Input
Amino acid sequence: MDLKNDLVEHARELAPLVASEAANTEKLGEVPRELIDKFCDAGFMKVLVPKQYGGYELGVDTMSRIVRAIAPSCTSTAWVLAFYIGHNFLHSLFPERSQEEVFADRSFALSPGTAAPQFKMDPVDGGYVVSGRSSWNSGSAAAEWFMSGGLTNEPDGSRKHLLFLVPAADAQVIDNWDVAAMRGTSSNDMMLNDVFVPEYRTADAAELIGGNSPGSRLHSNPMYSMPTMPFLLAEVLPIIVGGFRTVVDEYNTYVESRQGPRFNTRTPSKQLTQIAVGRGLASVDLADEMWNGYLHTLTTTPPELLREPLTRAALKARVATITDFCADGIDATVRAAGAEAFRSKSPLQRVFRDINMLRVHAYLDIDSATETYGRVRFGLPPEVPI
Output
């Protein structure tokens, strides 16, 4: 096998262990360190890191297929893994000195964070003094660095949206991840109080989002000139599709176990059960095809075309539509399973909760994404990131 296939196959081999830890992951509120260590040892975090820093410099499709192999076993674990792999790609878009620092020890870092401008950044000699608090830092429990966004307070009164990096030792994690779904992602708040950030650990948010980052000028591989939103969607889409597969497979196992005279509903002999099984299997196969189609489009479209607003808006709307399709399919399958699906021991209820939370994520919400596509199609500027 080549390296790409080896990595995906290794992910498949780890999937049963991930599944055996899924309930514990939810109870802990974070992915167990044993699993994170195994992901690191497998080389998953180096998939998108430039070769000059010891990475593999493989494609986005490899990352997405690794995540897809893990996703059916635990949505939370797959989400954290996707962010850790993906944020190493984002590290590769920062200035050269930043990359040399972050990748120095082992060619990758564990870096949660968000791009929203939630911090105040006051310019000082050589960089910025940063204060504030951010939410949704998935994977914060094992963080080595945090990647965040802030607005500068320039002397002339103007403001710039910058992304910046801080070592985890400089940040205070607020243990407030108390939610109904995605419980194992440790997506806690993070606080900074007058932390100095050198200028070389910052990047203009618009340039990075648009595919014109310092890293795009440093690395010749066109992957590093990709706009970030289509890339981020390739991180999370396999989680949605993988979750759908879990629900359909678990429902089939459930109905096949209901044999004998004491069962008279939701058995393989019932027409409604047969419809639910057939529709679920057909729908999840279609979902996998749509995910593969998205990857094909993303990896074969030239970066200059991906940077076009209409292309980016179309891709975002496509992923939101696939997400909505999967979430509706999950809802229908869980409804067919009845109240049994909501027992704590049933993985159906966990995936049901997780995917219904993800379908309203700012990047996956179908109303926002399709409205944006329509706006751009009519020549209007987008009001949300694309």
The chain is about 50% helix and 15% strand. The first helix runs from residue 3 to 20. The chain has a mean pLDDT of 93.
